[in-house]
Amino acid sequence: MDFSLNEEQQLLKDSVDRFIRENYELADRRKLVAAEPGFSPAHWRTMAELGWLGAALPEEYGGIGGGAVETMVIMEGFGRGLVVEPYLSSVVLGGNLVLKGGSDALKSEVLPQLAEGRVRLAFGFAEPQSRYDLFDVETSARKNGGGYVIEGHKGVVIHGDSADRIIVSARTAGGARDKDGITLFLIDGKAPGVTRRGYQTIDGLRAAEIILDKVEAPAEAVLGAVDSGLPLIEDAARRGIAALAAEAVGVMDRMQALTNDYLKTRTQFGRPLGKFQALQHRMVDILIACEESRSAALVATLRLDDEDAVQRDRAIAAAKVKIGQGGRFIGQNAIQLHGGMGMTDEMHISHYFKRLTMIDTMFGDHAHHLKRYAAL
Amino acid sequence: MDLRYSDEDQAFQQKARTFIEENLPTDIRDKVKGGLRLYKDDYVRWHKILAKQGWLVPEWPEAHGGTNWTPVQRHIFLEEQARAYAPRLVAFGIKMVGPVIYTFGSQRQKDHYLPRIISAEDFWCQGYSEPGSGSDLASLQTKAVRKGDHYIVNGSKTWTTMAQYADRMFCLCRTDPEAKFQEGISFLLIDMKQPGIEVKPIRTMDGGREVNTVYLTDVKVPVEDRVGEENKGWTYAKFLLSHERSGIARIGASKAQIEKLREIARDQRCGAGYLIDDEDFKREVAQVEIDLHALEYTELRALTAAAKGEAPGPEANVLKIRGTELQQKISELLMKAMGYYAMPYVPEALEYGYNDDPVGPDEAAPLAAVYFNMRKTSIYGGTNEIQKNIIAKMVLGL
User: Fold this and answer.
1) Whole-number Å distance between alpha carbons of B350 and B371
2) Catalytic annotation on B244?
3) CB proximity under 8 Å: B 252-281 to A
4) pLDDT value at position B244?
5) Inter-chain CB proximity B388 and A264 less than 8 Å
6) What pLDDT digit, counting tens, does each position of A267-316 carry?
7) Domain boundary among A203, A227, A251
């Protein structure tokens, strides 16, 4: 049993930290968020050059052959920096879906481009009615000659507004909430019939509503097996959750540090806020929530490839519950301890709070996963 | 990074599991699992079984009887004991005064006391709290006045767990009445079987008799039974509180109690079905399991970091706070699971070998008493609020 990073992972961490220090002042982030495409294509190129976009991809596809731990290290750093580049959607979700579901030809085509930063992916799995159920799919894909015609509405597709190619789940058989009969398609973002309504999310990212109106997809666009796409979607969701949990830990770390600093510097009633016991104990509760979230996030990453599916799913659900609850607690109390200043857009803390809150929503909130855990 | 135990540790785990299965007396196991009353003899029997095997004091230096196990192996051994419903060893000798003696004691103290702790010849109790000194321990008033080669001790100690069984007490006494607070305190080893010592039981709300008040009137303590320097006792007392806190979160025991909770819930009717299938119940159990899971890996992170020689952080205090909160929560769920039959109070049914018909289900009798008893966990060993004060000061720098 060992929870320390190896030498390469430590170097990776150092390089992520350096990147954040040099590029992610709050003012820098503000500029990126305000302009199109909502992130920096230059940063994306840098990430490609540093090998981060292929960190978890095999070397034969232009990656560096790492795994879940490398993803965790990068995402935790991105959490500390509140990075807005589409790493989760493109690399963690898109990359894994193509790697697990793509034909050899597709993998050889897409993955090296992904690693080099020349193509960006997004994953549309949610729909307006689906809430957090990954199998609730009304978008349909009908057979049409050798290919398919896809129709439907994919909702809140993170970074779906700017992605070059989009992976969508669609129903090829069965009823709207059947677990079988779902198929994944990799379609071009600019294919005829694809309408994207892009928007900002409240935590500073981008997303899109994607309307698919008689979008034609050839048989080669299918990822995984026809009618059996759900296990692939679930695998991507698990990896997404582990990555988000790591990001959340990075966010929490910063919120803890910022709030603790504030307590030491802000003076009221003639002494620093940090001298008041009620606030000290609240700060300790934040520290505890942070440590427990870190533990749960770490185990989620380390169990991603566990052969025991129940152990694995429990670790994932537990992490989502802990970072959801811990995130809510830390976020709300960090704002409270900052007082009126915590409410302002000017302070870092409010931006971290918004991101942490929305991380809870992604792939199902803590209540959803608590129920899931109880059913496992 | 690797979550799994190494092959060596897995083999160790198997060895420990087999040993415990083969050697833990059935009656003791049943008492622990059933939440029945445990007596000195129960603790001492298990203590001696481990001593005979050489596994009683793994963390002690090898020269004094330690095993040289890694922190992870010590953790595994504690987990395996809890899993098998072995009794928690009484800590006063092996975890508290023992390490103080081998770290700060004289050669005579080491030679004399350490073997007697291992053989259970001396059963120890702890003289820290006083009627006027709880969380503010340094305000203690029990006085030791030097008279030739003895101290004469006068005062009282309270919340003294198992003092009724104890042969000796390690005791904080004020040796310099002029000094302020932490200064002027000495760490004395006191013979409990002598005139001037009076042990009065304190009956607790669960009907139990664990704790006592100990009155000391002109008690004679040889100077050679002072550990370390005069007036430096606070240093040793603090060392004791921060030393070897592995297992402080009692993760293993909490896991075993959750198993017991499930067993009970399988038999308890709820609505048209059984409690085990009730959505609210399932969610409450899931929450406590998830919290326990996060705490377990917080402990393991600390253990593996310690094994690599990294300095300890806030873990011990965090583990104490959260571990006790979860123990309390689980005891509450156990009582709730029993419904009405948590109410009957039949003290005899808390004794092993009770043969009359129980009121309600067999396992019902101790559940409420255990719930009430577990309130102590967030109070003892430094209240959870004191733990938070320590974290705020030492870790957060507030």
Assistant:
1) 14
2) yes
3) 279
4) 57
5) no
6) 999 999 999 999 999 999 999 999 999 999 999 999 999 999 999 999 99
7) A227
B44-51's contacts with Cβ under 8 Å and 24+ in sequence apart are B44/B120, B44/B123, B46/B86, B46/B87, B46/B89, B47/B89, B47/B90, B47/B94, B47/B120, B48/B119, B48/B120, B49/B23, B49/B24, B49/B25, B50/B89, B51/B118, B51/B119, B51/B120
| Token pair belonging to B335 | 């009582």
> Domain boundary at A119, A150, A167, which?
A119
Distance from CA of B263 to the nearest CA of A (A): 16
Q: Kindly report the pTM of this predicted structure.
A: 0.95
pLDDT tens digits along A195-233: 999 999 999 999 999 999 999 999 999 999 999 999 999
**For residue B6, which amino acid is it?**
S
Domain that holds residue A244: 231-375
Indicate the residue of B6, B290, B315 with minimum beta-carbon distance to A322. B290
> Confidence band (pLDDT; 50, 70, 90) for B386?
very high
Kindly list the residues of chain A whose beta carbon comes within 8 Å of any beta carbon in chain B. Answer: 1-6, 9, 69, 260, 263-264, 272, 274-275, 277, 280-281, 283-285, 287-288, 291-296, 298-299, 302-303, 314-315, 317-318, 321-322, 370-371, 373-375
Q: Looking at domain B251-395, which CATH architecture does it have?
A: Up-down Bundle (1.20)
Q: What integer is the mean pLDDT of A49-74?
A: 97
* Residue B60, min C-alpha distance to chain A (Å): 23
Please give the residue of chain B at the shortest CA–CA distance from A8.
B1
> Does residue B241 register a pLDDT over 80?
no
Indicate the residue of A287, A293, A295 with minimum beta-carbon distance to B314.
Answer: A287
Residue A166 and residue A291 in one domain:
no
The domain over range B123-233 is classified in CATH as 3.40.50.12780: no
CA distance A24 to A83: 7
Clarify whether residues A221 and A241 are in a common domain: no
Q: Are residues A133 and A43 in the same domain?
A: no
Residue of chain A whose Cα is closest to the Cα of B396: A260
Condensed to tens digits (0 to 9), the pLDDT of residues A162-198 reads 999 999 999 999 999 999 999 999 999 999 999 999 9
